[in-house]
Amino acid sequence: MTYRRDLGLILTVCVELTLGACLGGDDGGGGGSFNSGVPASTSLASLSSEQAVQTCEAFGEKAMRVINTDSQIDVECTSEALVVSISPDGSGNPVVDVQACEQAFAQCKANGGPAGSDPMDSMAEFDCDPSNALDEFVDCDPDATVADLEDCLNAMLDSINTALSGFTCEAFSDPAALQNVENAGPEDPSLLPECAAVEAKCPNFDIGGGSESTAVASGDGSESCNDSCGAAFDGVCDDGGAGSETSFCALGSDCNDCGPR
């Protein structure tokens, strides 16, 4: 069982470029209100398999309301619109034509999303297998509780909320935001204080999980290609290297679209 930071790639967009406004209101769609239903004072080390699965499934259901199909399409359409609406200014720096971007976004939405769009839409994206439900908690300190875990998962949802609400054509009219587009996704959960506290008490807690991206090892064993680019998986090479169409992202960070570097 893993609580992955991209929640299954929160889509490489509702990850790693994650995205456009997808949170609902107090009906369970918003961030910061996850409750597993397991008593908050329960020690993580003493969770039963059933309680661990319950917690995982409750979080998955909450996340799927946050990262719903419409929001994922918004993210993908914003990414696609940015690609076609960016051009160099007089100094060669990339700038966004906001009007063109918003028009491209509207057309993409009218078409039901980009060609080949396949939003994740089910709990199948979450690993809540009873056979490994306790793997992340068996070595937890006795004072690590369900309340601590819920604090971490709520912080993750709040981080996603912040990223989603800021991923718009208008937001990237700011040159600084555009230059930093590859970091437009939610904060790495392992850097959130609430999650770092759980990791410190639970050595096997997989909050960082890693993104579901393509990674290619170089000859010396180091990673030379990944999909941490905010515009990964959009069919356009955006890493500024040979054959790329844009330089949104760092060289080697758009592996799926550009190939190994």
Number of strands: 4
Gyration radius, to the nearest Å?
19 Å
The end-to-end distance, rounded to whole angstroms, is: 32 Å
Strand order, sheet with most strands: 1-2
Q: What portion of the residues fall into strands of 2 or more residues? A: under 5%
Q: If helices are DSSP runs of H or I spanning 4 or more residues, what is the number of helices?
A: 7
Q: Mean pLDDT across all residues, rounded?
A: 73
Q: What's the main sheet like? A: 2 strands, antiparallel
- Low-pLDDT segments: 1-32, 209-223
- Helix content bin: 25-40%
Q: Classify the secondary structure makeup into a structural class.
A: mainly alpha
Along the chain, the helix and strand elements come as HHEEHHHHEEH
Number of domains: 2
In one word, what is the shape? elongated
